[in-house]
Amino acid sequence: MVRNVRIEAVDAVPRPLIAMGHDYPDGHALPAHWHRRGQLISGATGVLVLATPQGTWVMPPQCGLWIPPGVVHEVRMIGAVTTQSLFLDPDLAGGMPGHCEVVGLSPFVRSLIAKAMDVPVEYDPDSHAGALMALLRHEMRQLPVQPLSLPFPANGALAARCRRFLLKPTVHATIEDWSGPLGVSRRAFTRLFRQETGLSFVEWRQQACLVTALPRLVAGEPVTTVALDLGYDNPAAFTTMFKRVLGASPRAYLKRYG
User: What pTM was computed for the model?
Assistant: First the structure.
């Protein structure tokens, strides 16, 4: 159920920052929509997968996801997800990232967000509730970015190829596998890919494997199964990559954020 305020009413409330929560069942999907306000969404359980024309973001438990004002996005839930959202007036979003980002939430920030869920939407700005929301506005600007985004190119043919890859990602995909069907040379492809995504093909391929693996791991699939499906020779090779990017082994990471 929705707590505090209906989503349709968020933009009409005359407060700079508003908090609300929502409970979603496993597999629930929110069709393409957008908000006038920026949204920082977080969840204590499950995984949230957000998609825009510009990319895909995977938000594991205890992390947050910043969605700038006006960004059209679709959301899919993996596992039961209880979300806690902060909606920031667009006039105050200047210090926030200009594009979607997965961010880390310290225990302190998570506790502030939990308290904000009990704040009425038309709180008195000069009250204790107003001070809490003002503190959250400052804390939101300090959140560390997590490497759980996957940028998509604007080039139509290349974007389509990226989306097909996500259906069956593999660490064995090569530049030649992609450049040939697209009708470009290896050199031209390499230059185009970095220009369109900001990443090398190898970096993007690794990131694609990671953002598709994490929801499966959170859902309870064994590391061995996920690693072999992605084409890794053994679970240890996958674990090495996972630890290098996220700072912990899959088991430790899931224990920390599960």
Answer: 0.77
